[in-house]
Amino acid sequence: MDLVQGVLNGDRLALTRTLTQVENDTPTGRAALNALFTHTGRAHLVGVTGAPGSGKSSLVNKLAGYYRYPPDGEAPRRVAIIAVDPTSPFTGGAILGDRIRMRDLAGDQGVFIRSMATRGSLGGIAAATAAMVQVFDAAGFELVLIETVGVGQAEVDVAHLAHTTVVVEAPGMGDDIQAIKAGILEIADILVVNKADHPGVDSTERALRGMLELAHPAPRRYAHHGQIELVPAAAPAPVNDEPLWIPPILRSVATEGTGISEIAAAIASHRLHLEETGGWKVRERLRLQAELDMLLQAKLVACWKAQLPEEAYTQVLDDLLVRQLAPHQAVERLVKC
Amino acid sequence: MDLVQGVLNGDRLALTRTLTQVENDTPTGRAALNALFTHTGRAHLVGVTGAPGSGKSSLVNKLAGYYRYPPDGEAPRRVAIIAVDPTSPFTGGAILGDRIRMRDLAGDQGVFIRSMATRGSLGGIAAATAAMVQVFDAAGFELVLIETVGVGQAEVDVAHLAHTTVVVEAPGMGDDIQAIKAGILEIADILVVNKADHPGVDSTERALRGMLELAHPAPRRYAHHGQIELVPAAAPAPVNDEPLWIPPILRSVATEGTGISEIAAAIASHRLHLEETGGWKVRERLRLQAELDMLLQAKLVACWKAQLPEEAYTQVLDDLLVRQLAPHQAVERLVKC
Question: Could you tell me the sign of the dihedral formed by the alpha carbons of A234, A236, A239, A241, in that order?
Answer without folding.
Answer: positive
